[in-house]
Amino acid sequence: VQLQASGGGLVQTGGSLRLSCAAAGHIFTASAMAWFRQAPGKDREFVATITRSGGGTNYADSVKGRFTISRDNAENMGYLLMNSLNPEDTAVYYCAIGRLGLRVSDFTPDYWGQGTQVTVSS
């Protein structure tokens, strides 16, 4: 399974970006999807998850109300719309597909895409 993340870039504080994750392979529609990010010198952290159908989502507290995760199973695509960006959102963003536990927050990644850099200037 190949995952290709794109859409990163440089944006000013308060701006918006939409990240895309293109999946090659049939497993995408059978998998939950998530976005993670890693800032310089920090561990990779969870950002958001979405169920296979797209009916359930979960967000890190730091992005709740600003970011929206979505997916288009017909196109094998996942998205992360990021609004009201601030410098603390600067990181490399990764998409992943995997499995959910009993809750939408219990995500286990099986496949990772390469990252896309998001830089928010103050």
Word description of this protein:
Helix content is 0%, strand content 55%. It is mainly beta and 122 residues long. Strands 2, 4, 5, 6, 9, 10 and 11 form a seven-stranded mixed β-sheet that branches. A four-stranded antiparallel β-sheet has the order 1-3-8-7, with no helix packed on it. It starts with a strand and ends with a strand.
List the helices and strands and how they pair.
Layout: E1 2-6, E2 9-12, E3 17-24, E4 32-38, E5 45-50, E6 57-59, E7 67-72, E8 77-82, E9 91-100, E10 107-112, E11 116-121
Parallel strand pairs: 2-11
Antiparallel strand pairs: 1-3, 3-8, 4-5, 4-9, 5-6, 7-8, 9-10, 9-11
Summarize the structure.
This protein is an all-beta fold.
- Low-confidence runs of at least 5 consecutive residues: none
Note the quaternary state here. single chain
Q: Residue-averaged pLDDT, rounded?
A: 95
Q: How many strands appear in the DSSP assignment?
A: 11
**Span between N and C termini?**
37 Å
Number of helices: 0
Characterize the biggest β-sheet.
Answer: 7 strands, mixed
Helix fraction?
A: under 10%
The backbone outline, from C-alpha atoms, is globular
Which class do the helix and strand fractions yield?
Answer: mainly beta
Strand content is: over 45%
Order of helices and strands: EEEEEEEEEEE
Radius of gyration: 13 Å
Labels describing this entry:
single chain, 122 residues, mainly beta, 7-stranded mixed β-sheet, 4-stranded antiparallel β-sheet, 11 strands
